[in-house]
Amino acid sequence: EVERFRGIALPVIRNKMLSQATNNFSAANFLGNGSLGSVYKGILIDGTTVA
What we know:
By secondary structure, this protein is mostly beta strands. The chain has one helix at residues 15-21; strands spanning 2-5, 8-11, 30-34, 37-40, 42-43, 49-50.
């Protein structure tokens, strides 16, 4: 699923997918705190690393 934001196509990543990618928001994947909250490293099903 893709949504457009200011003319840019962005993939929609659901909370369930984020939970799986971050191993249920594991402390081992915690990177730090950003201006909008906690930041975690995750690996999507296609192997893409995200934060």
